[in-house]
Each structure stands twice: as C-alpha cells, then as structure tokens.
Design brief:
By secondary structure, the chain is mainly beta. The protein has one domain: Sandwich (Ctag/Cox11 (Pfam 04442)). Helices cover 14% and strands 36% of the residues. The radius of gyration is 18 Å and the shape is elongated.
C-alpha cells in the first residue's frame, strides 16, 4: 500500500473545508447529542443534515467546495447507483447509468432522471446516502439535486446531474482502504407544505439535454 499513500496537506482545504479526526468526530457526536436534547425540536432536521454532511455520519456524503488540488490516484473504485421512491408518489425515478468505474480523486458527472407520467405536477425532494457507511466521509459532491425541491410537470422527464469525486485519502484509513465498490442511493419523497428547501430545482428537461456518456 506504500504506493497508494496520499499527502492530505496540499489538498485538505478544498474538501468541504476540513476532515475531522476520529477523536474529533466522537467529540462532535457527543456534543451534538447533548445539543439535540436541549435544542429546539424544530431545528433538529436541518441540524442533523449539517452534522451528517460535516462528519460523513450514517453514510451521508460530504459537500466539497472544489476538486482543485485533489490528486488522482491510480486506483479504481466502482460506484453503483440506486434509486427509490416513497409510497404515495407516482414518479419514475432512477439513474441513467447503473454504475461507473473511476480513479480515486477523479471528478465524475452522472445523471438521474425523474419522469412524471401523471396529469398532475409533482413536487419532491431527494435524500441520499452511501454504503458502506464509512465511505461517507470520503465521498464528495460538487453538484447535487438533493435537499432541494424538484418540480416535475405532467408528462415531463428531467435529467438531474450529480458531480462527485472519491477522496484518495480513502486508502489511508484502515477501515476503508480495501473498499473497491460503493453504492450511492437516493430516495425521492413528496415535498410537504412544511418543507422549506433552500431553493427550487427545475432540472434540465431530458428532451433538450443528452445524457453524459
């Protein structure tokens, strides 16, 4: 594995800001647990999302600012794509391609599609995670349709991009160094009146945008 060691010092600033050490992650979990018990209940969902994105807890992927300075390692990893729709929403939803094999550190763009075969407008939101869960701290998204409200008009088919890379520091951790396959899973559910997404996404109409090959 000596040939696969990475130097995180020159690239760490671009990986969503920083990565927590094992002890720091435990400390954040403990502090967050205490804060969650005494905090206002209405804030629990957004706080949990932020916490998961910072730590990679529960297989939640991280949001990266840029891939600049991230080395590309000569080590393949296969990403499989999964999609689910909760009961009560009549939407065709899935990945355009089922899997890709990339190098660690390589930036890749893939597409999910959402097709409304009903005569009513569908508004929904997608949540996500990766498995194995310990890969969440190394799976970085540069672009994603998750946690924003997606609007699909009757008869419309949308293509929604996901741009990501897997941090090559994956090979430095004992619990992740032997992982060669990762599954990225999205679940689409209806947006309720209580949801307050950061923005509304009316993704690219598939009839005008060819899929990324």
């Amino acid at each position: 594995m000596n040939g696969e060691k990475t130097t995180g010092s020159k690239a760490g600033a671009k990986r969503g800001g920083f990565r927590l050490s094992a002890n720091q992650t435990v400390a954040v979990i403990c502090i967050s647990a205490v804060a969650g018990m005494i905090g206002a209940s209405y804030a629990s969902v957004p706080l949990y999302r932020i916490f998961c994105q910072v730590t990679g807890y529960g297989g939640t992927t991280r949001e990266a600012v840029s891939s600049e300075g991230i080395p590309v390692l000569d080590r393949d990893i296969t990403i499989r794509f999964d999609a689910n729709v909760t009961p009560g929403i009549n939407l065709q939803f899935g990945p355009v391609q089922r899997s890709v094999t990339i190098k660690l550190g390589e930036v890749k763009k893939i597409l999910y599609y959402a097709e409304n075969t009903t005569d009513e407008t569908i508004r929904g939101t997608a949540t996500f995670n990766v498995t194995p869960q310990q890969v969440g701290a190394y799976f970085n998204k540069l672009e994603c349709f998750c946690f924003t409200e997606t609007v699909v008009e009757p008869g419309q088919k949308l293509e929604m991009p996901v741009v990501f890379f897997v941090d090559p520091e994956l090979v430095d951790a004992q619990e992740t160094r032997d992982i060669r396959t990762v599954t990225l899973s999205y679940t689409f559910f209806p947006a309720s009146e209580k949801d307050t997404p950061v923005k509304t996404t009316r993704s690219t109409d598939a009839r005008r945008a060819p899929a990324d090959g």
